[in-house]
Amino acid sequence: MIKNIVFDMGQVLTDFNPDYFIRQYVTVPEDIRLLRTEIFESSVWQELDRGSVTEEDIIAPVCDRLPLRLRASAEVLLLHWREHMTGLDNIMPLVLELKEKGYSLFLLSNAGKNMLHFTHKIPALQYFSGILFSGEVLFLKPEKEIYLKFFEKFSLKPQECYFIDDRPENIAAGQALGMDGFCYGGNVAVLRNALRQAGVTLN
Questions:
Q1: pLDDT in tens, 18-69
Q2: Could you tell me the residue ranges of all domains in the chain?
Q3: Residue 182 and residue 6: Cα distance in Å, rounded?
Q4: Which class in CATH covers the domain with range 4-15+86-197?
């Protein structure tokens, strides 16, 4: 029986759009592409999510790979991109309904340890019973260790959890440990149907 609904953050509760973040600081298409490549699409971003480095740690190595004209913008971007995060409004009615129905809500997301200071940017999280970011435990989805840390931290049984994530490999990793889930593509009606099929009570 499902008692807990576990959400991912990016593309589920928030709109994670690197180009939008970058455009707050630069507007030239080539500069946007360079910053996206050297920051959000680079190996350093994964290390941020893992928690092995912070944004402050990677400013120098990232800037060393960029033209001089972009270094100041890259530094500001790295330190302030989270300030431009926005919650996805279309998921909020479902979050509220699940809470009202008595389900416990949790977040399991790949994000750096500094994200803990910005949870107020995501309105849905005020209704959550627990939050675990990958940067806190030094493991990333879909590594099985992060799921085990999550279950342990909140004393949850995998078979009583249902996981909503936008990446199929992350859902598959949870299923391998006993936590069923759904790969969310942005259609709340389809997600509602999947939850009902899993036995979750919804209007």
A1: 999 999 999 999 999 999 999 999 999 999 999 999 999 999 999 999 999 9
A2: 4-15+86-197, 18-84
A3: 10
A4: alpha beta
